[in-house]
Automatic annotation (TrEMBL):
Name of this chain's protein: Secreted protein
Signal peptide positions on this chain: 1-26
Keywords: Signal
InterPro entries: DUF6006
A Pfam family that the UniProt record links to this protein: DUF6006
Length: 141
């Protein structure tokens, strides 16, 4: 009987949920080891990397009727030696191995392997088919 009561209450609340909206917030996303701000060294030059979870609301309209939804997305970016921020995207994440897509003027694939005991990720970048060392130390969320 208690299970039936719970189901009835949930069904009764469903229209309220749909009309008032329940939105996802960036703080509700399960964390990954690479999320946050990193101090890096790329081929012995100082650099910074960030992977941040941000709110991503969407609105679409058709025939004068609009609908909105809430969501979140992960945004990556990289700054080499104080230069402008360049977008990054996640190619893959397999445990502590992280494949990154650098999306600058000459897009390329990067790799980092994270050591949770030191909070350091080491790997490489590529540029014009050459690999360069990349090491990043986790700074904060």
């Amino acid at each position: 009987m208690q299970n039936i009561t719970k189901i009835v209450i949930k069904l009764a609340l469903l229209p309220l949920t749909l009309s008032f909206g329940i939105s996802a917030q960036a703080s509700q996303v399960p964390s990954q080891w690479y999320f946050g701000k990193w101090d890096c060294s790329i081929d012995r030059r100082p650099a910074k990397m960030q992977w941040l979870v941000v709110d991503d609301p969407q609105t679409s309209c058709s025939g004068g009727v609009c609908s909105s939804s809430s969501g979140v997305k992960v945004v990556g970016r990289f700054s080499d030696n104080g230069s402008a921020w360049v977008p990054l995207s996640k190619n893959y994440l397999r445990g502590n191995d992280f494949g990154i897509r650098y999306q600058g003027a000459e897009p390329d694939n990067w790799f980092l392997r994270y050591n949770p005991s030191t909070k350091v990720a080491s790997g490489w970048t590529t540029w014009r088919n050459n690999k360069y060392p990349l090491q990043c130390t986790w700074r904060s969320r």
